[in-house]
Amino acid sequence: MIILQTIGFLVLEKFLLVGLIVSLSMIVAMYATYAERKIAAFLQDRIGPNRAGIFGLLQPLADGGKLFFKEEIIPLASSKFLFILGPCLAMITALLTSAVIPWSTPLHLFGKDIPLQVADVNIGILFIFGVVSLGVYGIMIGGWASNNKFSLMAAVRGGSQMVSYELPMGLALIAVLMITGDLRMSVIVQNQVAHGWHIIYQPLGFLIFFICALAECNRTPFDLPEAENELNFGYHQEYSSMKLGFYLFAEYINMFISGVVMSCLFFGGYDIPFVNEAAWGINQNLLAIIGFVVLMTKAGLFIFLFMWIRWTIPRFRYDQLMNLGWKKLVPLALANMVITAAVILWLNK
Prior knowledge:
Layout: H1 2-43, H2 59-69, H3 80-96, E1 107-109, E2 112-114, H4 124-145, H5 149-180, H6 185-195, H7 198-201, H8 203-216, H9 228-231, H10 241-266, H11 284-310, H12 318-347
């Protein structure tokens, strides 16, 4: 009976945590669209959304409602099952990556510690890479199933871009894993809390990882799959209503999760810089809340940086995109990995 109660409590705990993380991701994605428009307006000396609610704060709700009530159109010549599967797959893979992220230190409730992490698996970062690599299928399936040549061209671009930039991203990550010696996200964060943030030891690795994250999220200057002046509208040209909304939301969720992952890998996750939180002597739950706010602040700064870059740097040509990935980033990531390995061997003599 006690075992059944323990299992039931664990399942309930995980269900609640999953629900909170999904809700958080959706809310952040929703208001990231508002932030994008406001930042663009500021950089272009405009006002931006200011009609729906105070300072336009209800604009994301108005945009979401518009997508819900728009007519659902499925082209007659499309492959209907795959046409619907594409945006669903893009959304699912975007949300799945959050499962192994340690959002903060454990909460203490009902006489036990509850970790703010859905699954602390021993291949945590590999899980993220595996799910991210599946995200390309959402783009490829949607572009092909539309039976539109521009959508297909955009999907092929997106697929080749994501596959190309996963390689230098993985090589940059190997250098970090050499330092920590573990694939679990919780251990990677705890190692930084104890020994200093990885950005100190791996500045080049972070730069490579950040550039690749821009490409993986299809963000400017790597938004070749959505190049309106070349491909009309991109791989989701034939989509409408919430299927289009899924694609758009998936991009912003990917951007948010990318910011959280980079914060955990290079900037200490929920760790507060230059502060020993353990010496504060405050309640464990309050410490967990502070850690969560710190992680969200770091992720928010990355989202702002993504948006700033979008409205500042022009789009690359496709040949420039591939040259950067294969001829610049891959050799740099390999050199960074070899130098890191040599330094670790020298220090451990």
